[in-house]
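Run folding on both entries below.
>entry_1
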Amino acid sequence: MESTESYPEELTNRSPEPSDDESAEKPTHVRFLVSNAAAGSVIGKGGSTITEFQAKSGARIQLSRNQEFFPGTTDRIIMISGSTKEVVNGLELILDKLHSELHAEEGSDVEPRRRLRLVVPNSSCGGIIGKGGATIKSFIEESKAGIKISPLDNTFYGLSDRLVTLSGTFEEQMRAIDLILAKLTEDDHYSQNVHSPFSYAAGYNSANYAHNGSGGRYQNHQKEEAGTTVTIGVSDEHIGLVLGRGGRNIMEITQMTGARIKISDRGDFMSGTTDRKVSITGSQRAIQQAETMIKQKVDSASERDTE
């Protein structure tokens, strides 16, 4: 069924299309944070909204899974990828919807200044800042948006992304995004992040489990279409030491091995045991490395228990 919803006015009137066709078609992506409620609004009933936005913009729109948050926050990550033009169009559709919904709830006639947090690799932030802060200063003056780059959070081992916070009206934020995205797309290393947009989300997701300890044995190897998955058992009473405070240990393992690690919910045990299921997905080498690191956590805890 064809949608009757029109593009937001800003999509056609905000600014002229880039004159450089090659720049407009260059593959790029943008990642930003949204609340869990806002994520649901972007997805829509049965995925209808996200499907419509992808069709209208031509961009691919992906979200981190429910409860998979950016470290240190309770916000999910949205990634929009495609050509520069497609990414900007997709972002406009999403932000216009979220701004409109908040505006309707508040009932004010004046559009408020809102905050948008972009996720940017630390290695790419220098280009946005510029020599002596010259680039970021020019972006602020040209867009009229507030732009702040957070320091790298060393609390979470292996985290290499920083948050770039844009504050302003819808129009001001979009002008700032145009400038920032153009700068990021010049960086060849930036494009590599499109392949693992939520690499830390699974590890940090484990932080919602209680801090209990670690232990376990390894079993139940199985194959999946998307690579190999190995499920191992870690005793429920000791799972916390594998997770680490705030999920740091499991995030470290994820970052160092490249494996994806998922821990079963409380009460979901390996058959015939009280061991929680720890599923490790990746290459054989990544799985072996992750198993070894988990076993080291298990063994160190066991040694302390026997002392």
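>entry_2
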Amino acid sequence: MEGTSNGGMLYHEVQESKLCAVHCVNTVLQGPFFSEFDLAALASDLDTKERQMMLQGTAAASAAGGFLSEESHNVSLGGDFSIQVLQKALEVWDLQVIPFDCPVAEPAQIDPELENAFICHLHDHWFCIRKVNGEWYNFDSLYAAPQHFSKFYLSAYLDSLKGSGWSIFLVRGNFPKECPISSSEVSGGYGQWLSPEDAERITKSCNLTQAPPQRKNVAQQHPERLLSLDETDMQMLSDMEDEDLKAAIAASLMDSSPATASAEASTPETENKDSQEKTA
């Protein structure tokens, strides 16, 4: 049996701006290996190569015009990166990114426990689910700490993601075994090393203060129930997870100001007053 990596510690990064792709790559690798500047450099290199390919041949010249007018197809102004950038970053460590619905990934569709890491994406949000020292964790940067998954919950959670429209990718290869644990090297100040016990304590604390305990991670708290659920129960569980996922996405992407929301909320009241005055 292999020894524990990183002294049994878990590496987690908390959401900073829209850098979830950076957090995703680093938690796959379990260490602060990449910064947003590293991924931006990879994106720039990909853009250059793509433009060169589009310019080859006179037949493609007109089609290339619209393509070349774009600043980048691999990184947005808000800091979101394409799957190609994540692939290039992980290739540096000899890791391969494979779509979950690809034929070569069929064994993982049957038994995801056989894998070591999954990358999940919807809209502008990326996160990874990773096996560390034989245990599965959700390293979503929207969470304060990694959330432990049983292997039964892992399968149900992936099914819920697929049903909600998420793109899922496998990560295969020889993952780094060790990363120097140094606070000065923790990525951008939003990375942290946690013991599994600390991660569990933080997760429980957040569940008590931020989410209704009767709805939060039902399957995670009672994994044995997944074996006896009928189709109706599984659908209810899936719906509950979908709501949590949608809430997480909304929290990640929402950038409207409180003043705007307040103005919109006050509009019906103003219209009611005008209506009353006209009636009077």
